[in-house]
Amino acid sequence: MLNYQTSLDLMFQALADPSRRGMVERLSRGPASVSELARPLAMSLPAVVQHLQVLEASGLVRTEKVGRVRTCRIEPGGLQLAERWINERRTTWERRLDCLGDYLAETAPTTSKDPETGETP
Amino acid sequence: MLNYQTSLDLMFQALADPSRRGMVERLSRGPASVSELARPLAMSLPAVVQHLQVLEASGLVRTEKVGRVRTCRIEPGGLQLAERWINERRTTWERRLDCLGDYLAETAPTTSKDPETGETP
DNA sequence: CTGATAGTTAAGCATTTACTTTAGTATCAT
DNA sequence: ATGATACTAAAGTAAATGCTTAACTATCAG
Question: Which domains, and CATH codes, for chain A?
């Protein structure tokens, strides 16, 4: 089991490549084989498989081989980790802005002008 | 102006490093100078500045130099792009699951579970 | 069995990344 | 003016990344 930081590293790293994001987009519309994933991409099959390994390691995609075809699907809830991190940043930042708003409203309730220059920035 | 794909590349790439995420976390609690950002990190100051350049290029952070100190702050709405992409994937995937649920319910309404006993045969 | 399909393994290579050190340049306090 | 502070610029490096090609292994259809 990987720790939180490493999981986020792998997840964001996996999403940082347009081909890999393309694969995730394709897979969120339904499962696909490796060759199906490869078809729209301008690269060799081994390259696609390597991208796929990155996606699997990140927990975004799960694959399963039956016969000679490997079927790839979205790992449900795989994106949750990234989503959570982003939401935490947003709320921390928004809460801070609220406090700042309170502070400004309290300190200078009437001044929308710079008292030095008399200008509105 | 950068296109959508490149912006996502830069954003996710920027978030894929724990030091940079640490800086973003610090900055979402309020502005900081370069040295303040560097303090908790086990690396040289130039390294921190390089990370900062990645964050600026990604649109997550804005910096401004006054006198000899460069003040760094979160770029409001910088995370929106990543957030939007993730949400789009989630909804696409969830909608698909709904359809699949409909399909299963229609095709085999009685075979997955006995609604009386709750048992799976 | 034979050939085609689907994927795998391994090795190599150019580029990018994440640092480092060393040597600066402004700015500020005294 | 002098020294300390806060960066900045440049160059070098080890490791990671994103590919490639070539050769190989299963599986399936006829």
Answer: 1-108 (1.10.10.10)
